[in-house]
Design brief:
The protein is of the alpha/beta class and 363 residues long. The chain is built from 14 helices and nine strands. The chain has an eight-stranded parallel beta barrel, surrounded by eight helices.
């Protein structure tokens, strides 16, 4: 597996490669169809401006997030792009049989050869009741604790290398390497690189021990970012995949033409998070809805804290914020996620960031 599938090239004056995390946000007054159309626009635009990869994240039972099926969305995006890497940020492995994920991402690799990333997390991506429905079990901790074993099984399916005597030795993920060994087979043995995702130290340590690339969720666990990256680097063991650590961080970013508008939009993001954290998820609210909402003192405090971790403002302010974050964390890649009620505003945010760093448009 070539290392350049993982390491991107720096474009313009950006400190490191820039990428995108898309939650397929559904705002009040819009539909999932609208949100998915915006995702196609975003993928095509960011590809044209030199962003390295475009990931979608698995979430469930959240009306404002239409990314419950990453593999389906990625197949659609693959049909509308030609160069940008596409992947999961991530698939929540305990929700699925490893064989199913190997088949899904083998199919994606066949659709978009050499462009697919498989990012894996161990959280459910939802609340406990929904996780129980997904997993057909109420023993949720068991799934998280078994993550290393599930990961090993998935890797065996991806590589088609279960040892002799293993009960799965005669089971093959198709599309996959087994097709190259069949009579007349010409299937490429290549498979997507695996990333581990996390918001704490568990996956950081595991990614390091296995020599895998690591993605940290700075956008919702900012206080853990530096400790987790330090743990990943300290734990890292060179592997066939990487000879040195490679870590990206997810960053909430909202660039607008006007600083005041950025603050309005961040307030709406705060209301969305208040509802999510109190078990009342809904469609992403508009700034007008947030302005009319009567926030309690506790909610105001939460929003102030949450908003402090969103790099927002004018293009120059966002560029300065991202540069500072890169210096503080030493991240090898910044994966930007822009949350807003309006798809047009999200697209404009990425456009402003691309302009601020001089990312040139390509055909």
């Amino acid at each position: 597996m070539a290392a350049d599938e993982i390491r991107g090239a720096v474009q313009g004056t950006a400190p490191v490669p820039l990428s995108v995390l898309d939650l397929v946000t559904v705002g009040v007054g819009s539909t999932a169809t609208d949100a998915l159309r915006t995702s196609v626009e975003l993928a095509r635009f960011t590809e044209s401006r030199g962003f390295h990869r475009y990931w979608v994240a698995e979430h469930h039972s959240m009306p404002g997030v239409a990314s419950s099926s990453p593999a389906v969305i990625l197949a659609h995006l693959a049909a509308h792009t030609s160069r940008i890497r596409l992947g999961s940020g991530g698939v929540m492995l305990p929700n699925h049989a490893p064989l199913v994920i190997a088949e899904q991402f083998g199919t994606l690799e066949a659709l978009a050869p050499g462009r697919i990333d498989l990012g894996l997390g161990r959280a459910p991506g939802t609340d406990g009741a929904t996780a129980a429905a997904l997993r057909r079990s109420d023993r949720l901790n068991e799934g998280a604790d078994d993550f290393p074993q599930q990961l090993a099984e998935l890797t065996r399916f991806l590589d088609d290398d279960f040892p002799d005597g293993h009960p799965y030795r005669r089971i093959h993920a198709v599309p996959g390497p087994v097709q190259a060994t069949a009579p007349g087979g010409v299937q490429s043995p290549h498979r997507p690189p695996v990333w581990l995702l996390g918001s704490s130290g568990f996956s950081a340590r595991l990614a390091g021990a296995l020599g895998l690339p690591f993605a940290f969720a700075h956008h919702f666990s900012a206080h853990n970012t530096v400790p987790a990256l330090d743990l990943y680097r300290e734990s890292f063991q060179p592997s066939e995949v990487l000879d040195a650590p490679y870590a990206l961080i997810g960053v909430s970013v909202l660039a607008t033409d006007d600083e005041k508008e950025a603050r309005r939009q961040v307030r709406a993001t705060g209301l969305n998070m208040v509802r999510l954290r109190t078990g009342r998820p809904g469609l992403f609210p508009s700034p007008e809805e947030a302005e009319a909402h009567q926030f309690s003192a506790m909610e105001d405090e939460f929003i102030e804290s949450w908003g402090a971790n969103i790099v927002h403002g004018t293009a120059d302010e966002v560029r300065s914020g991202l540069d500072e974050l890169h210096k503080r964390t030493g991240a090898d890649e910044l994966m930007l996620t822009s949350h807003a009620h309006s798809g047009a505003l999200r697209l404009r945010s990425y456009e402003l960031v691309a302009d601020a760093y001089g990312l040139r448009a390509t055909a």
